[in-house]
Amino acid sequence: MTQRMLAQGNVAIGWGAVAAGCRHFFGYPITPQNEVTEWFAKELPQREGIFLQGQCETGSINMVMGAAAAGVRVMTSTSSPGWALMQETISHMVNAELPCVIALVQRGGPGQGTTQHAQMDYLSATRGGGNGGYKNIVLAPASVQENHDFIQLAFHLADKYRNPVVMLSDGLLGQLMEPLELRTLDLDPLPPKDWAVIGMGAHGESRRRAVACNTGLIFVERHASYLDFIEALDKKFKEMETEVRYESYRTEDARLVLVAYGYCARVSQEAVDWARDEGLAVGLLRPMTVWPFPYQAVAAAADRGAAFLVVEDSLGQMVDDVRLGAAGKTPVHLLNMLSRHMKSASGMILPDTVFQRIKDTIDQEEKSGTAVG
Amino acid sequence: MERQWVSGTPALWRKGEEAPFCPGCHDGTIGRLMMDAVDELGLRDRTVCISGVTCAGFISIGLELDSVICVAHGRAPDVATGLKRALFYKPVVFTIQGDGDTIAIGAGSLVNAAMRAENITVCMINNTVYGTTGGQMAPTTLTGQVTTTSPGGRERTMGLPAHVPEMLSTLDGVAYAARGAVNTPANYQKTKKFFKQALTRQMEGAGLTFVEFLSACPPNWKLNPLESNKRIEEEMIPNYPLGEFKA
């Protein structure tokens, strides 16, 4: 029987993780993700799981790495300053090919910034925030239900590619309460973790198992040389690029395509409906993976002659990806955090603002001779 | 006294794996000590080694033990914590870390693991320098000692030598803290007992156990192997006394 409840976005992360079979969580308190850590602290002991509060985010992510090396499904959750602290070990986990899930509930930056929502860690999350130019899949939920479902998908993709997966939420989605249906996603079977470091007696093989971060001085079993290792990673990253997921909303005949993720996608969808009510040919492209980014969907819309309006609660980060996809064929406009309804940390980009910008953009494009609207 | 043989290839050293240590380095000897101790306690099947970023981490290349090798600098106690708990406290877990890894960049991880009474064994190899990077100042560098980053000798303003087992022994979560050396057969045997006791106390669930091993770094000390042994006896042991500080 499917269980339904009214749940907060941060709490939905916990339910989703448990549905994915995750029984191990290591984390450190930071606003606005505290409900995630608190949920695991309360719920995991009741499920014969392990919850441990680390001494800092650096500690937590390294505990995650240890548990991942032991082959269990493990995750942590953090917000932006904590995310910054975790980069070194995420890079090491990519190197060691260890899977884990990190829920990043974004808040405003830079530095301590604010404790409230923002979308200012897009580039850090999608460009391999640590050293070494690695890749990791980044899922971008836009509802409480997706917070729940995407965490399951995140565990699946992490194990499939033996690579950390990030779920890029934000403070607003984290605090939002919506109906949640507890359901277990039906995902493809995965190979056994025959590499897990569990003690030689537990796996029974005559030689040891080693999980290693290649350092350049030490090559352990996996690859003959540093470049063999880099080439293998490159091959894997290219396979990960096939995991593109996005949603197109009323884009078929749209001459202006909004591009937004997370809470801004929810806001933009409402503005699209209002615009359509006024007969404007407007749609929404919502990336559900922001890495890999749906460049092809953007390119296809640009080929049709559609212009773009990127709506994001930062100074403009995803807009770079949209520009890459549009490849200069059509204009790419930006509505950023400077258009929040209040100048404070709790200001939001509201549907009214997006709707007005849609109308202004269409006017502007018509005046400049571009066929839009 | 009967002559004791402490080199050679121990049973647990991986076949075909060379020991990547400089001539006169004690890390290979410490590796043998660890492996013999694990085998003498019959723990080969349930022991996991976590090594840090350090010359001493190279020991883990050769261990025929399930291992996580070269984790982020200083974080071996955190990785050991996650692994031990993920396996519901079943394996015996020890780290191999250098002095910089343990008590400079990794001080926070070590002290917090100690405060949690984490049932792991932390092994710190103290050679008073950063060996891998070419002989820079370490938290254990002796006052007055010349290194490439204390070219005029270490002064008070650069920090005072870290006495880690002494410090850890004041923490409630620490069950065992000792310091040993391997510069003589007698010290080797005594230190092996320390390490076995640390693993035994870990299996009892007593809390964090810690062993510091004094080691030689002839290339960076600019001494030959015999002079290095003499330096351990005459300079290091008076500053870093051997023995159990909490048992």
Low-confidence stretches of chain B: none
Strand content of chain A: 15-25%
- State the end-to-end distance of chain A: 47 Å
Instruction: Enumerate the spans of chain A where pLDDT stays under 50 for 5 or more consecutive residues.
Output: none
Instruction: Compute the number of strand runs of chain B.
Output: 9
Number of strands of chain A: 15
Q: How far apart are the first and last residues' alpha carbons of chain B, in Å?
A: 29 Å
Helix percent of chain B reads 25-40%
Strand content of chain B: 15-25%
Spatial shape of chain A: globular
- Return the structural class of chain B: alpha/beta
Number of helical stretches of at least 4 residues of chain B = 9
Number of helices of chain A: 13
What does this 3D model show about the protein?
The complex is a heterodimer of chains A (373) and B (247). Chain A is globular and about 75 Å long. Chain A has helices at 9-19, 34-43, 57-69, 80-96, 122-126, 144-161, 171-175, 200-203, 226-240, 263-277, 295-303, 318-326, 351-367, and strands at residues 3-8, 24-27, 50-53, 74-78, 100-106, 137-139, 164-170, 177-182, 210-212, 246-249, 256-259, 282-287, 289-291, 307-311, 332-335. In chain A, the strands form three sheets. In chain A, strands 3-2-4-5-7-6-13 form a seven-stranded mixed beta sheet, with helices on both faces. A five-stranded mixed beta sheet of chain A has the order 10-12-11-14-15, sandwiched between helices. Chain A has 13 helices and 15 strands. In chain A, strand 6 (137-139), helix 6 and strand 7 form a beta-alpha-beta unit. Chain A is of the alpha/beta class and 373 residues long. In chain B, 35% of the residues lie in helices and 18% in strands. The interface between A and B is large, with 45 and 41 residues. Strand 9 of chain A pairs parallel with strand 2 of chain B, so a sheet runs across the interface.
